[in-house]
Amino acid sequence: MLFKTYFHEAKISTKFNLFVILIFIIGILLSGSTFWQALEQRAEAEVSSKALVLMETINGVRNYTQDRINPLLQDRIKTESKFTPEAIPTFAAREVFEYFRKNPGYASFVFKDAAPNPMNLRDQADEFETKLVKEFQNQGSSQKNGWREFSEGKVFYIARPFTVTKPSCLECHSTPNNAPKSLLTTYGTKHGFGWKLNEIVAAQIVYIPAEEILTSVRRSFVIALGILISTFLVIVFLINFLLKRTVIQRIQKIAKTAQAVSRGDMKADFEEDSQDEIGLLVIAFNRMKSSIEVAMKLLNKTGTH
Q1: Most buried residue, 12, 79, 163, 185, by CB count within 10 Å?
Q2: Enclosing H/E stretch for 156
Q3: Are 10 and 89 found together in one domain?
């Protein structure tokens, strides 16, 4: 009620300023929300791109180890009692990933070959990851991504299916009888067997903590919001300036002249050269003033006689 009374009694310029401020606030809120969503998507795309490059590199290392390194060390793997992990593609891929993590741009990334039946229990898939593997097996998707909640916080993940595409993989993962003894000594005979050619056995997953994305979003958002607010302020200032120049000041001048005429000062003139609405209003006032002057002269004449 108090605001309604204040708004009713306020000047046009004050009302306009309040209206502009309201539009400004609404515009900032709507634009800010839109910007945030757009920047969040952009940040997700950016870290996704980095994660995919990392994943492709790891797969390149895996394939190189499988095709070039493993054959050179086959005799050692079969004859020596000590296991040679450098000959295993998964081990080589993980080691390369750890080197990647020394780079600040990848320090918070986590890579995992999540398998329901891994040989190395370090790759044991949890319930969420097992579900991903089953989805890959049933739906044939080439990639999945989204958000996941951990006790440590929220993370963004990118996952791809890992398929047994080379017969050489089955030398270690078909049956314990076919596996090198050094491998069995290291990992045992209970896990990581029964794999089949062209079977999806795991999900390659890269986890990116939410802070990695949010930091990028906040940085871009602050810059974008600063530009947005500055632009809005300039627009508001220009509109306010033009309104005062083309409307408010002219109306104030008309009101001042009208007050002078109402006090009997017929020398006060309504001056306006424009032909817009306010100009037409001034013309009407001048005609009314002329009519009043004629009427007053007639009254004075009649009073004299």
Answers
A1: 163
A2: strand 153-163
A3: no
Q: Are strands 200-209 and 110-114 parallel, antiparallel or unpaired?
A: antiparallel
Q: Residue 162, SS3?
A: strand
Residue 143 tokens, joined: 């990639």
Integer Cα distance of 180 and 202 in angstroms = 22
User: Residue 282 and residue 276: Cα distance in Å, rounded?
Assistant: 10
Helix boundaries (H) for 65-162: 70-79, 89-100, 127-139
**Residue where a domain terminates, one of 210, 230, 256:** 210
Distance between CA atoms of residues 209 and 110, nearest Å = 9
**Domain limits for position 274:** 2-20+221-304
End of a domain among 162, 188, 210? 210
Residue 240 lies in a domain: yes
* pLDDT per position as a tens digit, 256-294: 777 777 777 666 666 656 667 777 777 777 777 777 777
Can you tell me which residue has the tokens 């979003």?
Answer: 217
What is residue 124's DSSP assignment?
B
Give tens-digit pLDDT for 86-145: 778 888 888 888 888 888 878 888 899 999 999 888 899 999 999 999 999 998 778 898
Backbone Cα Rg of the chain: 39
Residues 72 and 200 in one domain: yes
Dist. CA 159–CA 182, nearest whole Å: 31
Q: What share of the chain is helix, strand, coil (3-state, %, to 5)?
A: 65, 10, 20
Q: Are residues 11 and 126 in the same domain?
A: no
φ, ψ (nearest 5 deg) of residue 15? -60, -40
Distinct helix (H) and strand (E) counts, the chain: 10, 4
Is 13 in the same domain as 55? no
> What are phi and psi for residue 167, nearest 5 degrees?
-55, -25
Same domain, 174 and 226: no
Cβ atoms of residues 214 and 44 within 8 Å: no
CA distance 178 to 112: 26
- Do 65 and 167 fall into the same domain? yes
